[in-house]
Amino acid sequence: MTWLRNIANWLDSRLGLWAPVRDMATHRVPRRSASFFYVFGSAAFVLFILQIVTGILLAFVYVPTGADAWNSLQALNHGVWLGWFLRAIHGWGADFMVAVVLLHLCQVFLFGAYKFPRELNWVIGVCLLLLTLGMAFTGQVLRFDQDAYWGLGIGASIVGRVPFVGAVLVHLLLGGPMINGATLSRFFTLHVFVIPALLIGLVGLHLLLVLKLGINEWPMPGRVVRRETYLREYEEELRKDSIPFVPDAIWKDMVFAAAIVLAVMACAALFGPFGPRGIPDPTIIQTVPQPDFFFLWLYALLALLPPQMETPVLLVAPIFVIGAFLLLPFVAGEGEKSWRRRPVAVLSMLLIAVSLASLTSLANRTPWSPVMDAWSGDPVPRPDLQGRSPLELRGALVFQDEQCRNCHSLGGVGGQRGPALDAVATTLTQDQLIRQVLQGGGNMPAYGKNLTPPEVTALVAFLETLHPVGELPARNASQKEMENAAPLPPQSVR
Amino acid sequence: MSEEQKFSRRTLLFKLGILINTIVAVIVAVPVVGYLLSPLLKTDRYLSWISLGDIGDFPEGQTRLAGFRSPFGSAWDGATDETACWVRRIQGNQFQVFAVDCAHLGCPVRWFPQSELFMCPCHGGVYYADGSRAAGPPPRGLFEYPWKVQGGKLMIQAGQLPTLSTRA
Question: Best residue in A70, A171, A296 to probe B by mutation, most B CBs within 10 Å?
């Protein structure tokens, strides 16, 4: 093998790369930092490489035009040998990358790695997270289906809420007045050129800073970071108790990265690619758009916020949240690193994680959305119909026919936007039911204009039967008096 | 560095080089920025009168889905240039034309003729037959296109995606 060595020597005598690369690879890291807690950054890097490679491969076939993007994705799924698998790897790789980047963020936060002197690297990391989310959103747009189309509409509606320059921003976002080919072209450019270029540059800087400042040491309770002493203490630790990154520490990164890539491949093989779902034809309005997994929490938040809070939260909250992330190392640049001594940090992180998880799980059930076909698809439960008078049965028909079921469930089936009505008669009296139907309120439309008086009478008669067996419906004092009094002549009933 | 070196011929030429390249960079930047801002036209440049068909296609007292093709599209837009809208013919030549885009976040609203409500599948916005807000998170009623009847055709002025800051 001397000839190989000769070639290598010939190259290195001109390039001079061997010595600096070797020094970089074998730089010493604190022994206790060579832990499985410190592998998320390198795994994110490996996933990023996987995304670049699969992305380039997909671009061999993908056509970024409004007319043909969807068709070219179908060709990838069904026509190109293993095209579906490449799409699946890219899609699952994206989900894994966002997840691993978030894990990396949590680890760095809990281990206090953002403190002096690594503040700048935290700031770069926050930018990398935002760019990763940017890739996730633009990538969802490139899967140019119904969800992508209406997702862009949601994006435009959000920027349209910006005061004064809203219209300008909408037209800049869409590349013109409508969502069409021009919009896809600019998202393609962002996803394929602009954001990846920024990511590559910042990832390089991120790694350079890790090398330059050293990996965070394992945080020990009571070992407090002080600007005056930290650098000396870190050097001391390196001298006393450290190992070379290659080969002593890197094997854990390699094991984890390999496991993650295998997990991506397994998900891709088992679950296949994401969509594309329906064709992006805006005249097909029978669609229920949903964002991809990592934006579901936002989808839920926008349904649950009080309407008057939405614009402030949409426009102001991101500035505060991102600002808080960026300022964190400058506010808390010194002090304890160990999570055991930072209860506020641990609780804040748990709070954010639980909130995001709850919102995501709610967004999978969308209890706030009317079930568009419940009125025609979900029958009234049989017990609610047995032994009823013709008027009450007519009321059940009105209940279904007027789409009440889209928002109100019976027997656990139907919409959940409004309250379930299985026992409504025990909480609302006849008068209250009539008022609620006619005037609406409490987030219910008023049906006064849409229902004829006989329909209202029938509907309320049906609603009054909805109470558990053996439990009396709600009554008010006047109702009893009315029933005891002589019945009104029929023509005076409205 | 001595005084002499600070103002030497070389440093002067170096600074001159920076100056020239700054000027060139600005000259290059002007068309680049202009190109990037090209989607920004005055709003009325993005509006045009479009026919939705004979008024006879829309029965009185009913609300029907209609469609038109965006006048500002390109050849490669495919189906995305098609746009849907809800046409309500109140009576005679009285119309209301609503954008399908929910005023909340732009999801497509659906019309239910039985309950005479528009419902949005995303976050549960509900509107009455006249487009006014009935329930849910929308901050206003449905967006309406300006319309006119010309030569027996129903025309609407449209061309841009309606949002809270861009009119239908």
Answer: A171
Q: Which of A368, A459, A370, A366 is nearest to A414 (CA)?
A: A370
Sign of the C-alpha dihedral computed for residues A366, A370, A371 and A374 taken in this order: positive
Domain annotation for chain A: domains and CATH numbers: 25-365 (1.20.810.10), 374-489 (1.10.760.10)
- Chain B CB contacts of A299 under 8 Å are 122
Distances in whole angstroms, Cα of residue A13 to Cα of each of A6, A8, A16, A121, A351: 10, 8, 6, 34, 56
**Predicted confidence band at A488 (pLDDT cuts at 50, 70, 90)?**
low
CATH tag for B43-158 (out of 2.102.10.10, 1.10.600.10, 3.20.20.140, 3.40.50.20): 2.102.10.10
Longest Cα–Cα distance of chain A, Å, equals 116
Q: What digits encode the pLDDT tens for the residues A18-39?
A: 999 999 999 999 999 999 999 9
- The CA distance from B82 to the nearest CA of chain A, in Å, is 6
Q: Across the interface, which of B109, B119, B163 has its CB nearest the CB of A170? A: B163
Q: Is 90 exceeded by the pLDDT of residue B167?
A: no
User: Could A160 and B122 be called an inter-chain contact, meaning their C-beta atoms sit closer than 8 Å?
Assistant: no
- Nearest-neighbour CA in chain A from B5: distance (Å): 35
**Do B107 and A150 count as a contact with CB atoms less than 8 A apart?**
yes
Torsion from C-alpha of A217, A218, A219, A224, nearest 10 degrees: -30
* Cross-chain Cβ contact A285/B109 below 8 Å: yes
Interface with chain B: mutation pick from A63, A285, A295, highest number of B CBs within 10 Å: A285
pLDDT per residue over B70-107, tens digit each? 988 899 999 999 999 999 999 999 999 999 999 999 99
**ipTM metric:** 0.92
Assess whether pLDDT exceeds 60 at residue A493: no
Question: How many of the other CB atoms lie within 10 Å of CB of A441?
Answer: 11
**8 Å CB contact of B81 and A446:** no
Alpha carbons A99 and A294: distance in angstroms, whole number? 9
Q: How far apart are CA A121 and CA A328, in angstroms?
A: 12
**Domain residue ranges in chain B:** 3-36, 43-158
**Partner A, chain B 119-148, Cβ-Cβ below 8 Å:** 119-124, 126, 128-129, 134-139
- Interface with chain B: mutation pick from A159, A180, A186, A397, highest number of B CBs within 10 Å: A180
Contacts of A157 in chain B (CB under 8 A): 101, 104-106, 163-164
Q: What is the DSSP letter of A215?
A: P
* Predicted pLDDT at A482: 67
- How far does A295 lie from chain B, in Å, by closest CA? 14
Full strand arrangement of the beta sheet holding B153-158: B48-54, B153-158, B147-150
pLDDT at A494: 44
Question: CA B124: distance to chain centroid?
Answer: 23
Residue A178 has pLDDT above 50, yes or no: yes
> How near does any CA of chain B get to the CA of A222, in Å?
49
